[in-house]
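Fill in residues.
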């Protein structure tokens, strides 16, 4: 984690020690909200300045922090001690923002400081109050939907932004914490009322300190940023780092292109696609594809679905129910009590899928979610990260979470686990994120200047490039989208399989042990798909028989690998659901029930079948297979290592067919075959 100031200068801190928050003493000289009579609020209302919870009651409060949480708070305090008044703290979903906030609140209360905690979601109010109560702090709640009236004398005020903007501010606040600051900070309440009131005209002289918390501090509009509100930035570990630490589950991403016509989408004033244009592309046909793909990939997984609008959400809910899946829909208009009931049913498993519109993105904390369906497009990285963050939390028995992207969001914005830069200033300023740009380059043939590939005229010499017809790439099939780390692991696995078959560089028997030892988890079967034969469906039968022969040859000398179960697994990994692990010997391919030694008859059968398949539309596969069978039929020399069929095999040993030749005695014309303790006449053996 780095300490970054808005000047692009990294601020080096001294040895960081965990210290209490020594900021913002209640002071009547601070600017406070006043009423029309000019009196401070607490004086006019008659409220006594005695807090519900004293500082002493919080002394026994103990919050157990992870190492990175301790460091993050220490860095925030270090900034405060250096005279910086406003710090933005980035902590991704699962990093424990509520715990971080609670710790800072407890530290402030221990010093008798008054705290204002701002949220914009009802669920966040409840979560925060619950956490503070466990620490012996009973906050006052400023929210129209709360059962009790707020007590402005309390040391801690938890306020809903939408409610507070229509009410007077609590007085003498020494610490303001804005949760989900990527949203709360852009309410007029924060910039036009909270900051001026508690920070004064000159922020550097303020006795109040400000902390913004966010798991997604990225603004969609390039002209928006945070440097007008915050002076420095502290970063907790990024999502992939938390995954590596074991605090989040692994992420597996799947994408489906070509469902949305992006030409129909318009961009609104907030920088994201407009509601109307999104609803025009998220049609019932689109929704049907969402339901279909979910059922194909992970029907057993408990899932949440993010939709573009109410009509789409209702339609998808109906389609899931029609498929026999218990699904419920929750939208902004859903009453609070009904929401709680829906959340409870989803939590206990009564509801299998929860569909939402602008509800689950923030404050929804249900760790049992196993799949996230992105059934809407967005241009907002913050929204994408928030949506995906709902699925990464740890839960008992949960190894990973599937993310199904039906709107090319990952392709457009990057994977949600990626380490994105988090600048305070707008992207259009000098702090433009260079590392996220990947501009293709080309060389001017006239002057040799390397310029961006999209330029039609060389800016150095004026050379005009010939116009090229743009051909859109075909939509890719549905498949997993890998993080950079996963790409390296999958590349290793696929190269291993490829080399084991084509180049015989390493044995395929050791792939399980080698992969597990190297990456500390089991091989994902889907990563092996088409690694060897590159998905050539025109030669499926031929390739399957080639691979079966290879597997049989590799594993037959090890008893623990002789089982059909292992061959079936390896066949499934390469060919997926189209796998047929049944071995066909050469005579079966030629249409015979058993091997024969009459070469002329074999040639006759081969010729007739070749003539037939040479005149069929999809005959290439069978022609390759027939060629394989004919080569095996003609190459029937009995030698060590060859797989043979014992023609006169006793019935009680028939289940062992075929056999592998171990040794050959040329003088006696007999052979030793695997599993049989006596020699067998070569005349009774036929190469399989």
């Amino acid at each position: 984690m780095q300490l970054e100031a808005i000047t692009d200068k990294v601020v080096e801190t001294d040895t960081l020690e965990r210290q209490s928050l020594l900021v913002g003493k209640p002071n009547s000289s601070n600017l406070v909200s006043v009423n029309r009579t000019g009196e401070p609020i607490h004086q006019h209302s008659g409220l006594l300045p005695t807090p519900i919870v004293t500082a002493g009651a919080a002394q026994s409060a103990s919050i157990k922090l992870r190492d990175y949480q301790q460091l993050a708070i220490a860095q925030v305090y270090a900034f405060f001690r250096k005279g910086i008044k406003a710090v933005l703290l980035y902590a991704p979903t699962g990093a424990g923002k509520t715990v971080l906030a609670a710790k800072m609140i407890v530290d402030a209360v221990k010093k008798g400081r008054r705290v204002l905690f701002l949220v914009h979601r009802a669920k966040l109010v409840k979560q925060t109050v619950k956490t503070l109560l466990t620490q012996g702090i009973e906050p006052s709640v400023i929210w129209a939907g709360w059962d009790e009236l707020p007590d402005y004398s309390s040391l801690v005020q938890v306020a809903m932004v939408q409610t507070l903007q229509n009410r007077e501010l609590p007085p003498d606040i020494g610490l303001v914490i804005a949760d989900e600051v990527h949203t709360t900070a852009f309410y007029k309440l924060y910039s036009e009322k909270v900051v001026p009131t508690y920070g004064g005209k000159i922020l550097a002289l303020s006795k109040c300190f400000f902390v913004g918390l966010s798991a997604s501090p990225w603004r969609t509009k390039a002209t928006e940023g945070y440097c007008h509100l915050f002076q420095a930035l502290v970063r907790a570990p990024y999502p992939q780092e938390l995954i590596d630490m074991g605090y989040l589950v692994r992420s597996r991403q799947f994408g489906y292109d070509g469902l949305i016509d992006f030409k129909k989408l318009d961009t609104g004033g907030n920088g994201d696609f407009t509601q109307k244009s999104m609803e025009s592309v998220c049609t019932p046909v689109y929704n049907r594809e969402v339901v279909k793909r979910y059922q194909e990939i992970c029907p057993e997984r408990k899932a949440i679905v993010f939709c573009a609008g109410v009509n789409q959400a209702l339609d998808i809910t109906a389609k899931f129910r029609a498929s026999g899946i218990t699904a419920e829909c929750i939208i902004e208009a859903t009453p609070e009590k009904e929401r709680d009931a829906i959340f409870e049913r989803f939590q206990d498993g009564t509801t299998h899928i929860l569909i939402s519109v602008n509800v689950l993105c923030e404050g929804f904390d249900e760790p049992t979610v196993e799949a996230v369906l992105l059934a809407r497009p967005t241009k907002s990285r913050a929204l994408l990260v928030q949506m995906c963050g709902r699925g990464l939390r740890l839960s008992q028995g949960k190894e990973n979470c599937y993310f199904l992207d039906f709107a090319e969001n990952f392709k457009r914005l990057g994977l949600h686990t990626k380490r994105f830069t988090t600048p305070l200033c707008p992207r259009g300023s000098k702090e433009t994120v260079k590392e996220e740009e990947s501009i293709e380059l080309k060389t001017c043939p006239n002057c040799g200047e390397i310029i961006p590939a999209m330029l039609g005229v060389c800016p150095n010499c004026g050379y005009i490039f010939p116009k090229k017809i743009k051909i859109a790439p075909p939509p890719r099939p549905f498949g997993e989208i890998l993080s950079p780390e996963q790409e390296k692991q999958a590349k290793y696995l696929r190269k291993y399989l490829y080399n084991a078959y084509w180049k015989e560089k390493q044995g395929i028997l050791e792939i399980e042990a080698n992969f597990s030892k190297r990456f500390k988890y089991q091989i994902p079967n889907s990563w092996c798909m088409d690694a060897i034969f590159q998905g050539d469906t025109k030669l499926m039968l031929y390739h399957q028989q080639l691979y079966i022969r290879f597997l049989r040859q590799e594993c037959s000398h090890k008893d623990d690998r002789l089982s059909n179960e292992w061959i079936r697994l390896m066949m499934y990994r390469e060919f997926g659901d189209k796998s047929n692990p049944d071995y066909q010997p050469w005579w079966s391919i030629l249409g015979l029930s058993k091997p024969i030694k009459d070469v002329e008859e074999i040639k006759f059968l081969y010729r007739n079948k070749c003539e037939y398949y040479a005149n069929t539309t999809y005959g290439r596969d069978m022609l390759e297979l027939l060629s394989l069978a004919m080569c095996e039929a003609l190459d029937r020399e009995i030698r060590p290592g060859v797989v043979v069929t014992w023609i006169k095999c006793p019935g009680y040993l028939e289940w062992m067919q075929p056999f592998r030749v171990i040794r050959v005695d040329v003088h006696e014309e007999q052979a030793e075959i695997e599993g049989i303790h006596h020699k067998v006449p070569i005349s009774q053996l036929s190469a399989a």
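The first helix runs from residue 41 to 44.
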